[in-house]
Design goal:
single chain; Growth Hormone, Chain: A; Rossmann fold; 2 domains; seven-stranded mixed β-sheet; four-stranded antiparallel β-sheet; disordered C terminus
Length: 733
């Protein structure tokens, strides 16, 4: 029973922490792998002290209450004191751009805290939260006579955990429900071990109470509604401003007060002599501003694609112009890239409307929800769905000139004609090395728009949105208005490639906001810090033989350690590949994790039914699969028939999981100390997670070569240990 419940609680509470701490610890949503690795580290340390006298689960209520309190204090200080700023990789001149991290106060007196320090603090706190659960898991493995059957029970609990968490995510339940379930499970374990004292029960209640009070405190200010989508904590203010994870994200506005960017492409089409666009695809439709403006310019049909169900619902219910109620609008709750690849419709206009998520796609990789929208293959998909002479528009505050250059390069390759770059405020030239404000990239092989600029040199847009449809709202002669300063100049901006060619993002390297194939300094510092903290914690929790030294080297299970490291990279690759095939939605993520657990379960059942203990056939098959997945690009299947498009990529992504699971289960069955073995396996997973940033250098396919290395080490290390042990015996004889 404890094996099942521990498996359930570890996975359920892990997902709870990933969601909650990302929402309330400022900017941690960009580094949710910190929470994932911390949970693994804590579980590993707990397994290692399974036979220790101290009951760490009894400390769970105090540790969790302390971590939650630290998050609340940090959020309060950040919101109430403008003199503090969190630096996320020097966003003034970054190697990797993060949206929503702009400095609030650039004054020299601002107290700057590096995000690595924040990540390190919560890495330790969250790790300690999982030590007690890991200890319960290790003791349960020790008490269960059959290792493999015990692991089957543990996997069954994990499956129950992910199913339940997916269900309550679908129902948009608040964190108080997640923590109540987690604390209830821990209370049962404490009660079962006769350590549920009144003080510990009170601490568990206080945890749930604190989680309940936080959104109420936030709503007491300017916010009127707080809801939890599967991606964010979404807050809707009374002024129709939408905040996600305490960072400003969107603002719903009436057509006559909305920003000019929403109308600009339609105004340019009108002024260049074109007819109103008939069929339009808007990706990142959000709360509806792009949809609203398109409707006012006579569009006949709009496919509005949005990935977040809560933000879409807020737009449906609260957008003041109610654009989603218009019969010309068809809503699609889907990932934009998946929709592009699967639609058979043709469009006159495709719009990327401020596509800039503030969250990672998953806690396993550094890609974001929109990363696969900004790859060369995605732009090729856009070219496929556009009618001849159609237009593609992408606009945003891209932050850096090299990001704009990358978008322009990919658009030029996909469409075969030069895009127009329009900057606000107007710049005659934009260097790749300099910051940029709002920028619009317009790509169309219908040269009417370019000819209009050649004829008039510039257009002028009234700063008052309500006048944009008037006779003088958009003009070629600013002298026609009484106050020329109220008009924006609209003219092409020339890109200056002062940093040389910028590499396009591709499906295997989906990092549009990364300057090039590098591991950013921020990630290197984070890897070093978290790695050091992890080593220190493992050292402190390893059983000691006396003094400061851990037990003999013979007690370190090298095979289980490297199996954990390899499996972490294998799982990362599977999550990313399935996101490309089926979309970067939370449902796809949940199904991938569920499928991985089912395959592990099948691997254990296979080991239970077979008597063979030979591992080399499974190692050979696993390495062959990994080499094939590392060599064969997924995009060659994307335009094939359905069996090839789905079957082969899924086989390459998930097939290795089965063989890796067999190797683990067979090895785990032969361990003398299952608690230590499982602890070293999870510790290896932490190392694999710390190695994930190499994907930014190598791409995700070649990251599998690192996984191959880990698996080869797992096969070699035990043999090395046995030879070493044999030589010691001969020396003693």
């Amino acid at each position: 029973m404890n094996l099942f419940l521990a498996g359930f609680l570890v996975l359920f509470f892990e997902l709870t922490c990933i969601r909650w701490f990302a929402a309330y610890v400022v900017f941690l949503q960009f580094f949710t792998n910190v929470v994932l690795l911390a949970s693994f580290l804590g579980m590993s340390c707990g397994c290692m002290i399974a036979r220790g006298k101290r009951d760490w689960l009894a400390l769970f209520p105090v540790i969790v209450l302390g971590a939650v309190t630290a998050a609340i204090l940090m959020l309060t200080v950040y919101n109430e004191w403008s003199g503090i700023e969190i630096d996320v990789g020097n966003q003034v001149s970054p190697q990797l751009v993060f949206y929503g991290t702009e400095y609030r106060n650039p004054d020299v007196a601002t107290f700057v805290v590096p995000i690595e320090a924040v990540a390190g603090l919560f890495f330790v706190l969250i790790s300690l939260m999982f030590v007690g659960l890991g200890q319960v898991l290790g003791r349960a493995f020790d008490a269960y006579p059959d290792r493999v059957k015990g692991y089957v029970l543990n996997i069954g609990g994990s499956l129950a955990g992910i199913v339940l968490f997916s269900a309550i995510s679908f129902l948009e339940t608040p964190p108080v429900v997640w923590f109540a379930i987690s604390c209830g499970g821990v209370a049962w374990l404490l009660y079962d071990s006769d350590t549920l004292t009144k003080s510990r029960a009170l601490a568990l209640v206080l945890i749930v109470g604190a989680i309940f009070v936080i959104p109420l405190r936030i709503d007491a200010g300017s916010h009127s509604e707080t809801r939890w989508s599967p991606y964010y904590a979404v807050n809707l203010a009374r002024n129709n401003a939408i905040t996600v994870n305490v960072i400003g994200h969107q603002l719903m506005a009436r057509f006559d007060t909305a920003g000019a960017q929403y109308s600009l492409i339609h105004l340019l089409e009108r002024e260049s002599g074109g007819k109103p666009f008939e069929n339009v695809l808007i990706i990142g439709a959000g709360s509806g501003n792009d949809v609203d403006n398109a409707l006012h310019f006579g569009v006949k049909h709009i496919d509005a694609v949005e990935i977040d169900p809560v933000i879409l619902d807020m737009g449906v219910r609260h957008n003041p112009d109610h654009p989603y109620q218009d019969p010309r609008v068809e809503q699609h709750l889907d990932d934009g890239r998946h929709f592009l690849r699967t639609t058979n419709r043709k469009y006159d206009l495709v719009v990327y409307g401020l596509v800039d998520s503030l969250v990672l796609h998953s806690s396993y990789s550094n890609i974001r929800l929109e990363s696969f929208l900004f790859t060369q293959q995605a732009f090729d998909d856009i070219a496929r769905v556009l009618k001849p002479g159609g237009a593609f528009v992408a606009y945003n505050v891209f932050r850096q000139g090299w990001v704009v250059q990358r978008v322009v390069t990919m658009a030029r390759r996909a469409f075969g004609c030069n895009p127009l770059v329009l900057s606000f405020p107007y710049k005659a030239a934009l260097k790749a090395s300099e910051p940029t404000g709002f920028t619009m990239v317009v790509t169309s092989c219908n040269h009417a728009l370019a000819s209009a600029f050649e004829q008039h040199h510039a257009f002028w847009l009234n700063a008052v949105p309500a006048d944009n449809l008037g006779v003088d709202g958009f003009t070629v002669d600013p002298a026609r208005t009484s106050d020329p300063q109220l008009w924006y100049k609209i003219a092409p901006t020339t890109l200056v490639a002062d940093q040389g060619p910028i590499m396009p993002a591709v499906d295997d390297w989906p990092f549009p906001y990364l300057h090039g194939p590098i591991i950013p300094r921020l990630d290197i510092r984070s890897m070093a810090l978290l790695g050091t903290l992890g080593l220190l914690m493992v050292y402190l929790f390893l059983p000691k033989s006396g003094g400061f030294l851990p037990r003999s080297v013979g007690g370190i299970d090298g095979r289980m350690f490297f199996l954990g490291a390899g499996f972490m990279l294998l799982e990362t690759r599977a999550v990313v590949q399935m996101a490309l095939l089926f979309g970067s939605t939370w449902i796809v993520n949940s199904l991938v994790f569920f499928s991985v657990l089912v395959l592990i379960l099948l691997a254990n059942l296979y080991v239970l039914k077979t008597s063979s203990k030979r591992l080399w056939p499974h190692y050979v098959t696993l390495v062959i699969f990994l080499f094939m997945a590392a060599v064969v690009p997924v995009d060659i299947f994307l335009n094939s028939s359905l069996p090839l498009r789905i079957g082969l990529p899924c086989l390459l992504a998930l097939g290795p999981v089965l063989f890796a699971g067999v190797i683990f289960a067979r090895s785990f069955a032969d361990t003398v100390n299952p608690d230590m073995a499982f602890g070293f396996n999870v510790a290896g997973a932490v190392v694999g997670g710390l190695a994930e940033p190499f994907s930014m250098l190598l791409g995700f396919r070649h990251l599998l070569l690192l996984a191959v290395l880990f698996y080869l080490l797992s096969a070699w290390v035990p043999m090395f240990d046995m030879r070493l042990l044999a030589s010691k015996k001969r020396g003693c004889g």
